Amino acid sequence: MLWIALHLPQLPLDAALRCRLRHISCEPDPYDHVPIVICERNVVGWCNQLADDAGICAGNSEASARALAADLQALPRDPAQESKALEEAALWSLHFTPHVVLRPDGLLLEVGASLRLFGGHQRIATQLLSGLLELGLHARLASAATAGGAWLRAQTAGITQVFAHDGDISAALDSLPLHVLDHAQAHLDTLAGIGCRRLGDLRQLPRAGVARRFGQALLSELDRAYGTEAEAHQWFEAPAIFDVKLELPARVEHTEALLFAARRLLLQLTGWLSARHAAVTGITLYLHHESTRQRDHRSTAVNIQLGMPSRDIDHLALLLRERMGQLDLIAPVIEISLKADQITAQAAPNTELFPTPSSDAENTGRLVERLQSRLGNEAVRQLSVFADHRPEKSVMSSVLSYQQAARRNTRDAVADTHPHCVRPTWLLPQPLALHTHQHKPFYQSPLTLLTGPERIESGWWDDALATRDYFIAQNEQHVLLWIFRLRTTSSTHGSGWFLHGLFA
């Protein structure tokens, strides 16, 4: 087993500031260049770098902190926002494993079964931290063979990323300071007085004396970290449906400013889909507008329809960007929400060596989806076969569809309509009348008939009767032409020979 721990030491501060990131609003962020602290019961608990540079530290009273920095911004702690931030981080983590555990100030992930799929624990760790940064959260990451061991390593001061995991859990944990143990906090001075400052030192003490002096809970926490006592975990459960809202910190009047906030919702969506082994074929982003005096604008729905199921965040973000680039806001936006409308089961991606027809179809589908998002569904069309033997009426333009059954039916229709005929890929808009030379049709040179005739008598029902004999002909330049001769001619038809198509 391999556990990854994500410790969020500044969670209250991140939860308060992440909604004020300047990427969401076009206005300058007043919190960018001022010292900020999070206070609880008038006591400083967390501070940003500028507050730390001013000499403010956790445990100071709010009054003394203001004395050190006149422009100090003191914000109250918001447990509801902290819980919401942790849930968003958990939804993102589900992208890598269904085994996610919520801690009061972080997450635990069991990723042993996911290493091969994502290319190793270093790539998983890098992607995890990158996603958390997009969510506005800063984490310390560590890994170990046990959940408790990974959690203790992640709390070590000064460590932001620990990618390596040690086979010998003792070597990985013995050098850690005692303050990483929750049940040792009340006894740190006493333990330091007897020369016990690290986990390895504590393990050398007689267990009976430690249990009698400091309590059995301290030993149990230590044993769980080293793997000598079993751990029980309550896995995070994703909601049954995905419908997530995000309140914006300011009025947004431009769609470009909304994309950063929308990506936060997409991060959670892709993790939720991965946990359910599913993908979406349709999502809707709702833009909730500010009410105006002239009219109460409630919301604008931005619907994204996918030709093929997907849970790729970059692909979904690209489609959303293309669609919102064409949108004019009817009123400022104060809140957005994302809903997964159409969900379908999808297994994990196959680690194939060579491209397969399914992967080629996915690449083509994504290209068309992007074109439809940018140009509109009606602008991207396909040629489909119509049941008519007249060439000019046998192919029609229709809105492009990606259903496999539709593509199969189209191929079958082509085979059924012309089972023994060879047709050119290029038809002239209007048949071109040909002259004859020595009783042979002429186009740049006398033509030689190679195959034919293919007789067509059709169209009596719509007053466009066609009675023709089609031939494949060749000129002296070896160009293959598709020509026909009218079976009934008149003086207005000239020779009765026409050029209708060219073979590539």
TrEMBL record:
It comes from the Bacteria. Signal peptide: none annotated. InterPro entries: DNA/RNA_pol_sf (IPR043502), SulA_CellDiv_inhibitor (IPR050356), UmuC (IPR001126). Residues 31-151 form the UmuC domain. Keywords: DNA damage. Pfam families: IMS. This is DNA polymerase Y family protein.
